[in-house]
Amino acid sequence: MKILMQILVACSLVYSLVTGIAFAEEGHDDHGGHQPPPVNAVSGDAHQHADEIDGQSEQNDHEEGGGVVKLTSAMLDMGGIRVAKIDAVWGAKFSLYAPGEIVNNQYQMSVLSVQLDSKVLKRHVVLGEHVEQSQPIVTLFSNEMAELQQALMLSSQEWARVKALGRKTVGSKRYAETRLTFETAKSKARAGGMSQQAISGMLSNSSKYRLGEYEIIAPFEGVVLNDNFQQGQFLSAGEPLIDLVNEEELWVDVLIAPKVGQTIPLGSKAIVKVGGKNFEAFVIQENHAIDETTRTRKIRLSLQNENHLLHAGYFVDVHISLPLEGAVMLIPETALMRSSDGDWTVFVEKEEGQFEQKEVELINTSNGMHVIEGLKPGKRIVVEGAFFVASELAKSGFDPHNH
Fold first, then answer.
1. How many CB atoms lie within 10 A of CB 165?
2. Which residues have a Cβ under 8 Å from the Cβ of 101 and sit 6 or more positions away?
3. If we measure between CA atoms, which residue out of 93, 90, 61 comes closest to residue 377?
């Protein structure tokens, strides 16, 4: 039994020795180098994680760069693609849009009223009629006017006699008093409603005039807006007859949203759009008060109304031209396209025939050009044919926002 145990121990030692030698031989290659240990589960996950990070980084770079499309020369010609270099521009102006309403020029309006208790004898104009300067509006009769006209004619005759005799004959005091009485009579007749033309006509040929009758005439060319009288009506002193307005120059009241520090320089040009037509206007007033109801600020424009095409009450669209501060990027409307999520984009030329879609921010409009931000000066972009480039980008199935 003891001998059997010794034999088993010896066999075990021999087996261990042989196994160790075999293991040592497997750890060397033909050139004597060591083989790398086998990959375990932990190291395998690490390599997989690294591959995912690289993939995500590549995807992020792709998204930041936007969609890229490559066009052949034939496609460039077919799409009418035109590329131009865009640089910053100084001294540009932008167009401020605001709604407006045409109103009458209050400085070119007049309310014609009776100055004496009078009766309407005859109407010479109707509502809406365009009248010329000095055109008769209405013929009135007044007892008080008859007294003024009588005093005027008597003082005129007396002044004519005194003036013919001369100052030396009648004396300086009488000469001056007679002249003053005549001038006073003329002033009272004018204040009563007689025109200077009517006074001169009465004094030169009094037989043509009936005492007490007189005409109210138009002080300037204009349009009858209101007529508040009827033929045969008796009017008290101070009652209005008509409202007369000169429509050659109208006002446009514009309501803009107030901004801190915003100023609209007087004389700034504006385009007033109404009925499919454009009219040029200028800023003449800037109201610094904010309307409590609309929370807007009023800007007033002056508009020359040639051929009387416009009238008070029209609602209009107004575009006021204002200067932009600093250098800005201006691009034509044909260069702008909408992305799949509605953002404004342009196509930047990476190399000939290759274009990258890049988002920009639309700031304002300047004389038909658009002011943008988000594009570095000196870039070459597609200014014509952007729609064709966008179509080709869509055909490729690229979505720059990964939607």
1. 12
2. 252, 253, 313, 314, 315, 316
3. 90
Q: Which two tokens stand for residue 369?
A: 């050009």
How far apart are alpha carbons 364 and 12 in whole angstroms? 93
For 271, list phi and psi in degrees, rounded to 5: -110, 125
Query: What's the pTM value of the predicted model, to 2 decimals?
Result: 0.59
Q: What is the pLDDT of residues 190-214, one digit of tens each?
A: 999 999 999 999 998 878 889 999 9
Q: How far apart are CA 122 and CA 124, in angstroms?
A: 6
Which pair of tokens denotes residue 196?
């200077």
Beta bridge partners of 286: 299
3-state secondary structure 161-229: HHHHHCHHHHCHHHHHHHHHHHHHHHHHHHHHCCCHHHHHHHHHCHHHCCCCEEEEECCCCEEEEEECC
Buried b vs exposed e over 114-125: b needs ≥16 C-beta within 10 Å? bbbbbbbbebeb
pLDDT in tens, 40-87: 333 333 333 334 433 333 333 333 446 899 999 999 999 999 999 998
Instruction: Tell me the mean pLDDT in the region 376-385.
Output: 92
Question: CB burial class (10 A; 0-12, 13-18, 19+) of residue 355?
Answer: buried
Domains annotated on the chain, with CATH: 68-92+327-395 (2.40.420.20), 108-245 (2.40.50.100)
Strand order in the sheet with 88-89: 88-89, 328-332, 369-373, 361-366
Asked whether residue 250 carries a pLDDT value surpassing 70, the answer given is yes
pLDDT given for residue 366 in this prediction: 65
Paired residues of 98 in beta bridges: 318
Pairing between β-strand 93-104 and β-strand 337-338 as defined by DSSP bridges: unpaired
Distance separating alpha carbons of residues 177 and 314, to the nearest angstrom: 57
